Amino acid sequence: MKPNGTNPIPADARARRAEPVVICYPTDTLPPFDRAFYDGVREGMELIDAVTVPPRQGNTAHVPAGHIFRIVSVDGPQVGDLNLWNANDLSERFYSGKTRALHGTHLGVGDKMWSTFPSMRPMATIIGDTLDWYGFDADGGSVHDVIGTRCDPYTNNLLTDDQYHHCCHSNLTRALADAKDMTLQQAEPLVHDVMNVFMCTGFTHKTHQYFMKASPVRPGDYIEMFAEIDLLVGLSACPGGDCGSEHSSDVVTCYPLVIEVYKPTADLGDWQSPAPNKYDRSHGR
Prior knowledge:
The protein is α+β, with helices and mostly antiparallel strands. It is 16% helix and 28% strand. It has 6 helices and 13 strands. Strands 2, 4, 5, 8, 9, 10 and 12 form a 7-stranded antiparallel sheet that branches. A 6-stranded antiparallel sheet has the order 1-13-3-11-7-6. It is globular and about 65 Å long.
C-alpha cells in the first residue's frame, strides 16, 4: 500500500487531485447484451453432465460452444476459483486483467469473459446469477471478482513458510493435468488468474487493501454462463470455504461445488462462435 507522503504538498495539490476521471476502455461500441437471445437458449435446455468439485480439490468439465454451464452451490456456502481454456487450444485462456479493465472489478449478467492475446474474444457470457441482488455493500464488497488472483502455494510459503498443496492454484494444476494427461510441470504454466465465483471481496476504504468477507452464497445458488467457444472449464473449491476467515486452510469448513452442463434444445439460428480479434498483428512493422 502507499505510505504517507514525505514530500511537501504543492500549492495546486487540490486542483491536481480534482481532475475528472476518464473511463479507460469505454464499452459503448461493443455489441449490447442480447437478453432475448440468451433467454431463448435457456428455455427447455437439457442437463447433459454434472461434475462435482470436492472440497479443497479441483475438477474440469468440457462445455461445447453454444452450450450453457452453471456453477452451483451445494451443501453449504463455498467459493470457487474459475479458469477457462479454449478446449482446442489451451494457449487461449481467460484474461482476468483485461476482463476487469472492460467490465469492472466484479462481474455480473451481461458481462463477458475475454480471452488472452492474440485471440482476445469472448469465451463465455454470464447469463444468470442468483446473487445479483447483492450489489455492493457498505464495505465496498461484491461477489464474482476479477481482482484477486488465486490462493497459491508460493505466496502461502512466502508468508507462512508452510508447504500447503490444496491452494486453488495447485488444485487447478492437478485438475488440468488429469484432464489433458499432462505432467504437473506442463499444466502449471497454463493455470491463470481467475474469476472468484461467489467470493465477496473489495478494497478497504482507508488502505485500499484487497479484502474478503463471508460469501452470501447458499445451497441452490448458481452463476450461469453461455459458452461462446468450445471450453474446458476448470474449477477449484477454495480451501477457504466461504472465505469469511482465512484461505489456504485445512481447518475452515468447506463444501463441494457442482458444474452443470446444459444442451440447448432451442434453434440457435445463425449464431456462431466469435472470431479471433481482427488486429493484424503487424505491430507497426
